[in-house]
């Protein structure tokens, strides 16, 4: 064997190995596909160089190789196995990446570790000519010792594999694990990292996550629950409290119709009763806003019951005065004015589904809701269905357009539940409008606000979906043929 002819392929193999390591470290990950193709080409050339030198990594190193080159040949043969393991690993990652996603690397790491383990055993057997049985026995003993030493770590690792395979949660999901709520930002070999609502990092071992109960708030992703706990005194009759809570739920437009929202008695104590209110919204981002709105609606509905049952001998208030107190548009009136105006108010009852005020009709009275929920809807054309633009509850007023400019009502007001409404004729309200100019200003701002809100909702009205299918295509073809004739 010529020494020069033997050394030249080895030098080429060393250069190819150096080029491979350099390109893999310095080429950016955006060129990952090109890196894999280049590595395959370099591995092929590296194998060709070893074959030109008369070497085979699948057989022991020949004894006739000169001693100065013997160590180099062993290193290159072992490098061939390790380089092949690395090439196979990145190739499998490239193939499996679209299926397993790019955010969790645990499965990729386990796969790579297994391939490298097989390559190391093969290199020891073929290149170093070590006995396979003895190697496996030694490796088994070492594995047992290491397994006992890192038992908890191995439990976390295998639990992480199970979590990645079953996928009870993914990166970016909001979950609860062991009474810890947070957003999943990483799942590594040993632990799952959660970003809590306080902005802190919670690290949960995978073994604990696999054994405890996991609540995934992000699935299903088409609705999310809003749950409130309300404590009310025992003197309040549960049927009245549940009725007020149900009306508060109906007064929130953002709650989904399905699943249906509801309220129930959760626990009863000596001094108070605990109620649970549950509703569902479409977007998780609206949970806090809807929760705050529900608390406000519950307060308004319960204040009606409190006002009706409150006994205040030091300053007795009539029922009409309490209704005027609940109407924010009339709060600038003094107590004497409220008491005098209350004498002009007349009580009207509306059943669920009954129209309180029609659209395009000029109102001649101001209406104040004492209890119940009123749906506000508009009809923009004779062939279109009605579009709900809002809902009203206790303390809201209707008919302000007649006071402002004598124009017709822009919406239809329909009772969703049984409603108690007080009415004040405009002729009885004129003295207060002339004496209190700010009262007319409030009505003008209220009418302007509602007109803007109505216009905005109408503009956002979703267009009707275009029906697709064979029959529609057939009708279009028939229509075109008739037009050509």
Question: What descriptors fit this protein?
Answer:
485 residues, alpha+beta, SH3 type barrels, Alpha-Beta Plaits, five-stranded antiparallel beta sheet, 15 helices, 16 strands, 19% strand, elongated
Question: What is this structure's SSE topology?
Answer:
Blueprint: H1 3-26, H2 32-52, H3 67-100, H4 106-126, H5 132-149, H6 151-166, E1 174-177, E2 180-187, E3 191-195, E4 201-205, H7 206-211, E5 214-216, E6 224-233, H8 238-250, E7 262-268, E8 272-281, H9 287-309, H10 319-326, H11 335-342, E9 346-350, E10 355-357, E11 365-371, E12 374-378, E13 387-392, E14 397-398, H12 400-404, E15 412-415, E16 419-425, H13 426-435, H14 437-459, H15 470-484
Antiparallel strand pairs: 1-2, 1-5, 2-3, 3-4, 6-8, 7-8, 9-16, 10-15, 11-14, 11-16, 12-13, 12-15
Helix pairs in contact: 1-2, 1-3, 2-3, 3-4, 8-9, 9-10, 10-11, 13-14
Description of the structure:
This protein has helices spanning 3-26, 32-52, 67-100, 106-126, 132-149, 151-166, 206-211, 238-250, 287-309, 319-326, 335-342, 400-404, 426-435, 437-459, 470-484; strands spanning 174-177, 180-187, 191-195, 201-205, 214-216, 224-233, 262-268, 272-281, 346-350, 355-357, 365-371, 374-378, 387-392, 397-398, 412-415, 419-425. It folds into 4 domains: 3-149, no CATH class; 168-216, SH3 type barrels (Roll), CATH 2.30.30.60; 224-309, Alpha-Beta Plaits (2-Layer Sandwich), CATH 3.30.70; 327-459, Jelly Rolls (Sandwich), CATH 2.60.120. Helix 1 (3-26) runs parallel beside helix 3 (67-100) and helix 13 (426-435) crosses helix 14. It has 15 helices and 16 strands.
């Amino acid at each position: 064997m010529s020494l020069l002819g033997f050394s030249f392929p080895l030098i080429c193999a060393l250069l190819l190995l150096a080029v491979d390591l350099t390109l893999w470290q310095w080429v950016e990950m955006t060129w990952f596909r090109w890196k894999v193709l280049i590595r395959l080409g370099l591995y092929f050339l590296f194998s060709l160089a070893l074959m030109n030198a008369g070497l085979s990594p699948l057989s022991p190193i020949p004894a006739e190789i000169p001693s100065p080159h013997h160590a180099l040949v062993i290193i290159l043969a072992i490098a061939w196995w390790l380089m092949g393991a690395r090439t196979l690993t990145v190739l499998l990652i490239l193939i499996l990446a679209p299926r397993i996603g790019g955010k969790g690397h645990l499965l990729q790491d386990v796969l790579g570790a297994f391939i490298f383990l097989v390559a190391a055993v093969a290199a020891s057997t073929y290149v170093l000519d070590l006995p396979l049985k003895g190697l496996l026995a030694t490796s088994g003993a070492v594995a047992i010792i290491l397994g006992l030493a890192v038992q908890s770590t191995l439990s976390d690792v295998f639990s992480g594999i199970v979590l990645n395979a079953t996928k009870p949660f993914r990166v970016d999901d909001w979950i609860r694990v062991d009474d810890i709520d947070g957003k999943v930002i990483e799942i590594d070999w040993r632990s799952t990292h959660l970003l809590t609502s306080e902005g802190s990092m919670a690290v949960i071992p995978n073994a604990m996550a696999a054994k405890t109960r996991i609540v995934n708030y992000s699935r299903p992703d088409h609705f999310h629950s809003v749950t409130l706990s309300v404590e009310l005194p025992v003197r309040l009759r549960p049927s009245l409290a549940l009725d007020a809570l149900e009306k508060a739920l109906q007064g929130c437009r953002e709650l989904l119709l399905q699943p249906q929202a509801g309220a129930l008695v959760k626990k009863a104590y000596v001094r108070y009763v605990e109620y649970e209110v549950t509703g569902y919204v479409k977007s998780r981002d609206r949970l806090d806003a809807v929760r705050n709105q529900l608390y406000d609606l519950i307060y308004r509905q319960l204040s009606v019951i409190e006002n009706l049952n409150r006994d205040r001998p030091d300053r007795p208030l009539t029922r009409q005065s309490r209704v005027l107190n609940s109407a924010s548009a009339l709060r600038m009136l003094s107590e004497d004015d409220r008491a005098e105006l209350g004498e002009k108010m007349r009580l009207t009852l509306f059943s669920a589904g009954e129209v309180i005020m029609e659209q395009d009709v000029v109102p001649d009275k101001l209406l104040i809701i004492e209890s119940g929920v009123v749906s506000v809807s508009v009809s923009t054309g004779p062939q279109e269905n009605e579009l709900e633009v809002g809902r009203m509850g206790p303390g809201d007023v209707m008919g302000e357009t007649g006071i402002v400019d004598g124009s017709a009502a822009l919406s239809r007001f329909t009772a969703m539940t049984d409603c108690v409404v007080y009415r004040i004729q405009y002729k009885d309200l004129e003295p207060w409008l002339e004496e209190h100019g700010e009262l007319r200003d409030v009505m003008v701002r209220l009418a302007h606000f509602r007109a803007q809100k109505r216009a905005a909702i109408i503009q956002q009205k979703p267009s009707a979906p275009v029906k697709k299918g064979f029959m529609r295509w057939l009708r279009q073809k028939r229509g075109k043929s008739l037009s050509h004739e």
